[in-house]
């Protein structure tokens, strides 16, 4: 989720508050294909990616690009994405009612995790193995695409200086569309994985928005690899703090789990506003040895 959010911010400099709805889209794609067509949750991953990418491109092309061409500020574009997110939540609510009325699916509005449809290996649920493997594959794929292809080099040039990139003949609009497609696809894939572990509902992705931004900000908002590190740190922080906190202080700590990403984001901004990628780790290690 954080990687896609960082990718769109890197290219178009717009904080996308509708990114959570793209996660919800992946969740409902997995749920719908499973309930209606009895498709394996992992077989729906390509469908989620394409749908998420297409919707993200449509959002950029229909809403954000026209506003940017009219001179809208970054704040205005950010508010526009927030409005889009509200619209999406309504659409998903209508869609869940449609699933119930047309296909007789009673739990479409709030469905349990689809873990019973997942495979297990040695008592370990499949998503625990497949999701990290997917993260590794995505990381390697992004690294090769950005460093070993002419399109990746053009994308990096657009991120560094869009005006100069246009001057040397790079079609920056194509770069923006591809980045939004990739970001939307990654968000939807994350949603597809998410409902194998957690329940889903029309605003499930929007509820995760703070955690996504926390991961991106912790990564520095300027590095895809930083977003990966930030997302892992936020996720691990949620689990560790709630697990050990509930053991030491009681089960009431679990109810404050949604606030942990916000706490992480505040600490990150206070101590290293440039994110973990801005820290001089070698210098820090040298000072600690001294």
Low-confidence regions: none
Task: Tell me the number of structural domains.
Answer: 2
Tell me the number of strands.
Answer: 2
Radius of gyration: 20 Å
User: How is the main sheet built?
Assistant: 2 strands, antiparallel
Structure description:
This protein has 13 helices and two strands. The chain has helices at 2-12, 19-37, 45-69, 74-103, 126-148, 150-160, 162-167, 172-194, 204-207, 209-218, 224-249, 260-271, 281-289; strands at residues 120-121, 124-125. It folds into two domains: 2-205, no CATH class; 208-290, no CATH class. It is 72% helix and 1% strand. By secondary structure, it is mostly helical. Strand 1 (120-121) and strand 2 (124-125) form a beta hairpin. The longest helix is centred in the first third of the chain and has 30 residues, at 74-103. It has a two-stranded antiparallel sheet.
